[in-house]
Structure formats: C-alpha cells, structure tokens
Amino acid sequence: MTDRKAAARTEAFAARKAACAAGQGQAAEILADFLAASGGQTLAGYMPMRTEINPLVAMAAHPGPVGVPVILGPGQPLKFREWSPGSAMVEGAFKALIPVEGAWVEPDVLIVPLLAFDARGYRLGYGGGFYDRTLEGLRAKGQVLAVGFAFSAQEVGEVPIDATDQRLDVMVTELGVRRFRCGLSLP
C-alpha cells in the first residue's frame, strides 16, 4: 500500500501544480457560501502552502471562531490555535505558518487540505496521517463536518486507502459542492 500511495502522491502533486497555475476560479467564494450555513460553529482551516488551494478568504469571512492546525509531533493528532486575519504568525512544523499565540479551539467544521480525492469521499494526504488521526478523534467525541477543499483537477478514479483513512463528508471545488456522507446534518 505504501508504494501505491507514494506513486499516487507523485501524480497528484503534478496535477495540483497544473491546476494551481490555472487559478482557483470561484472556489473560495463557493467555500465561503457553504460555510455560511454553519453559522458561528467553530471552524478549522489551514494556511495554504506551495500549490494548495487557498481557503483564507472563506476562513476570514466565517462569523465564528476559526483555528489553524498545529503539529505537536509525529504520530499525534493536530491541535488548532485560534486565528484571524492579521494574527502574528511563525513558521511551524513542515514550514506551515501557525499563530504565535491564541486559544486552542476544537472544530465543529474542519477544512481538510489534500493531494487527491475520489468520488467515494476519500482523500490522499501527504502521508503523515495527521488529519486521519485528528478526524478519528474528533468523530469519537461527536459529529464533526470534514470538508475537503481542492481543485476539481485533483479528482482521481480511486484513492488507495487503508484501515486508518477517514472519509470526507463534503468536497468543495471551483465547480461546486459534493456531499459524500448520508445521514449527517449538512448545510
């Protein structure tokens, strides 16, 4: 499985790079509109790196608390520190920007970055398992909405998965919103 995922990551990085060069269209606005239905729930997004699609416009428009991920160490789930536009930031693990200070927040809605996704709602991440561990822990405590955010060009026929991979509930791209999980109360 490790070799299959490594090969899929190589292809996915190339597809995402090409999509990023073409621009993200209305993706951030579509994400903001989707998130508006969640009201003031606590949202966790991410600080975009390299060719990741940029969720910052949607995060800044969110009416409730917003956090960004902090990597505490290998094999651990993510924690989320409160963020707002203009927050003082510092480079964290893997060169991701994190707030210098702020309260820890636990998200009700989690925007998840990815390399690739499929029609089943599975995502291919970077291989550290941080989001899978985080989603597993949050879901054990109650309902959390996992929202993938990507370019439509990042969709693949089938993401290689194993027992620890967590499905997304929703995918937002520049083409719109797709729901994967039935039985959840989605906006």
Architecture overview:
The chain has one domain (2-179): NagB/RpiA/CoA transferase-like (Rossmann fold), CATH 3.40.50. Helix content is 26%, strand content 21%. It has four helices and twelve strands. It is globular and about 40 Å long.
Brief rundown of the structure:
The chain is of the alpha/beta class and about 190 residues long. The chain is built from 4 helices and 12 strands, in the order H-H-E-H-E-E-E-E-E-E-E-E-H-E-E-E.
Quickly list its features.
187 residues
Shape: globular
Number of strands: 12
Q: What class do helices, strands and sheet pairing give?
A: alpha/beta
Radius of gyration: 15 Å
Widest sheet, order of strands: 6-3-2-1-7-10-11-12
Gap from first CA to last CA? 35 Å
Tell me the CATH architecture: 3-Layer(aba) Sandwich
Mean pLDDT: 91
Q: What name is given to the CATH topology?
A: Rossmann fold
Q: Which homologous superfamily in CATH is the superfamily?
A: NagB/RpiA/CoA transferase-like
Which bin fits the share of residues in helices? 25-40%
What is the makeup of the main sheet? 8 strands, mixed
Q: What's the structural domain tally?
A: 1
Low-confidence stretches: none
